[in-house]
Amino acid sequence: MAFSTRTLALAAAAPLSLALSGCIGGGDIPSASAPITQSEAQQGAELHPQLLAEFGGAMSGTQAQYVEQVGKNIAVQSGLGNARDSFTVSLVDSSVNNAFAIPGGYVYTTRQLVALMDNEAELAAVLGHEVAHVAARHSQRRQQAAQRNQIGGILGAIASSILLGNSEIGNTLSRTFLQGSQLLTLKFSRSQELQADDLGIQYLDSAGYDPDAMGTVLASLAQQNALDAQLLGRGDAKLPEWASTHPDPGSRVQTALQKAQPLGDGVTNQDTFLTRIDGLIYGDSPSQGMIEGRTFIHPELRLAFTAPSGFYMVNGTRAVSINGESGKAQMTLAQYGGNLETYVRQQFAALGGENQQLAPSNLERTTVNGIPAAYGTARVNNGNSQVDVVIFAYEFSNDRAYHFAAITPAGRSGVFSPMFNSMRRVSDSEAAGIIPRRLDVVTVRSGDTVQSLANRMAYDSAQVERFRVLNSLGTNDVLRAGQKVKIVVRGR
């Protein structure tokens, strides 16, 4: 939750409307793309700063410059633009595995996805895949097929069916609850994903990269998705299908490898890649708040809370989402005028939207760990069932408040009570002791093993599994002296 001086304006802004190519079908693959049009360039230029704000902002420095260089080199293979300057390639400060592009030559990848890659060819493959979505005008076709293209609202109908059913209040609340989650991008059809893979492989071959890289990076993503589901699935929490940013990468791996087989060999530039990404921040950063197990702690905002047992959290740009089978919630902020009761009522009204009169049936004041707080509950008819909506707000200063918005089946809101009561202030000394995780590229020495290197991973659990996925190592793969591998350590 990267709250900063711009966050209040973002939180109050209208949803960002995008033709967003997130990460294929039928029809022949075009041999050349139509150049970027003036209207596409204008659209991209208008959306670019909004998109950067939504996904944590653009990173700078040598790592971002390297990603930009590789991205422009692969993008020119598409025919969208005849010069590298036709494209804007950004490394964004997000801890979610994702990449996307928008019309006008704007291409993005998150630092977390870059950290998962093994070589430069895989970086080129991911960026080429996203360029291919733009070159094939997939976003425009999806917009014509279905006008659900708002960040925070794209998957509202799918998410509402999980808990709330297909109803007006369900859809409205789900759209609100999905805002701020960096998991959301425009979902393309399977045929469009496959077509973007195919085009991306062509771009790799034209640029002199190993065309197998599309298949290998998809394999890494599939392994990471499986590990995430395993780690988040402890207790009764399960990773919902809609939370995958790149749907079904496992089934695309073999197809991509088969398409690449007839093509020539190319370079991977593995050593260069690993050298360039050494030290890249991994996972959450202190400036965005950090999830440690079931605890979220934000050293800059000086707050922390703990999710209920059996729930998992997703840290987004504008909110932290808390998800489980028995309910879902978000912690975020809004404009605060100094009155908690008014603030709570305003959040209910915002959840209800234009067509719903949503207000608490009761409103109580309390204190949580010394923090003034107020909360209210509303029971809402939702098709053939009912749900309870809770707003629980905290006053951190005269002009700053945060709140949880939670939805559960009727009578089950108590599942979130331990979380509501766990909100606390973070001391200066505790905040100073929070250190982010970073990639450390090391050379395997004689005697090093998967276990010995995994023991250096800055995690309390699943060290071996995390190490193997991070380095694309199978269960039976062993290390060799002189090999470079990535580990995750604590470091500023």
TrEMBL record:
Residues 440-487 form the LysM domain. The lineage of its organism: Bacteria, Pseudomonadati, Pseudomonadota, Alphaproteobacteria, Sphingomonadales. This is Putative Zn-dependent protease. GO terms for biological process: proteolysis involved in protein catabolic process. It comes from the Bacteria. One of its GO terms (molecular function) is metalloendopeptidase activity. It comes from Altererythrobacter xiamenensis. InterPro entries: LysM, LysM_dom_sf, Mito/Outer_Membr_Metalloprot, Peptidase_M48. One of its GO terms (cellular component) is membrane. Its cofactor is Zn(2+). The keyword Hydrolase applies. Keywords: Hydrolase, Metal-binding, Metalloprotease, Protease, Signal, Zinc. Residues 1-19 form the signal peptide.
